[in-house]
Specification:
single chain, 241 residues, mainly alpha, rod-shaped
Length: 241
């Protein structure tokens, strides 16, 4: 019955009233089409912005990867520099220790030679004292005598005195040689004391260029604006599911 009443009401409308109704329906349809087009355009803009945000995300990720690679390169360079410095330090320490060891070895060898020649000189001086003592004893026994035995004792005394002079000369030579070896030994020990053995440098000095923040890659030098919240999706505009 409601449809019958509406039909009757439409039938009762005049031509002008029916035309106005048709225009109103046309305007409402046109408005709905305009809004639909606006929603579609807005949805397309949303997709474009989302793609732009995704591009920025990829650019940020690439920048982070570049920075990580740069930091790793710096750390590797620092480790390599430390290894080279440690190698140089070990070389310098080994060289210095070898110099000290060689100097002390020579000093010890010279001291052994010094002591050896000193012992020879002491023994030779002892022999010289004995020869002089014997010569003096023979001279004392032959004193005031003019017999053949006295002449023999005097000749023996002369030989003992000559032997004493030879032993004294040898002792003087060996003492001088011992003094020379002693001087060489002292010189070697002084050289050993003057050798500078490098100390291990602190770790803070080993890494001269600590890792710094990685510079931005040239392709990422553009200003990255603060991200805006993503716009509404297509379904938020009443289109799509």
């Amino acid at each position: 019955m409601a449809d019958t009443d509406d039909d009757e009401q439409v039938a009762d409308l005049g031509p002008d009233e029916r035309a106005e109704g048709d225009d109103a329906l046309g305007d409402r349809g046109a408005g709905e089409d305009s809004r639909a087009k606006e929603w579609v355009a807005q949805a397309a803009l949303t997709d474009t912005r989302e793609l732009a945000v995704d591009d920025e995300d990829e650019a940020d990720a690439e920048y982070d990867r570049d920075r990580q690679r740069h930091r790793e390169d710096l750390e590797q360079d620092s480790r390599s520099a430390r290894e080279r410095q440690d190698t140089r330090h070990r070389h310098d320490v080994n060289r210095a220790e070898a110099e000290v060891t060689e100097a002390l070895r020579l000093a010890h060898s010279y001291e052994l030679s010094r002591d050896n020649f000193r012992r020879h000189a002491d023994a030779e001086r002892g022999l010289a004292r004995e020869d002089r003592s014997r010569a003096a004893s023979l001279d004392a026994g032959a004193a005031g005598r003019d017999d053949p035995q006295a002449n023999t004792d005097r000749a023996d005394a002369d030989r003992y005195r000559a032997s004493a002079r030879r032993e004294t000369s040898r002792a003087n030579y060996d003492d001088a040689t011992a003094d020379s070896f002693g001087a060489d030994a002292r010189e070697q020990r002084q050289e050993a004391a003057q050798v500078q053995v490098p100390e291990q440098p602190p770790a803070a000095e080993a890494v001269r260029n600590p890792p710094q923040p990685a510079p931005k890659a040239r392709k990422n030098l553009k200003n990255i604006k603060q991200r805006k919240p993503k716009t509404k999706a297509l379904r938020d505009w009443g289109i799509g599911e």
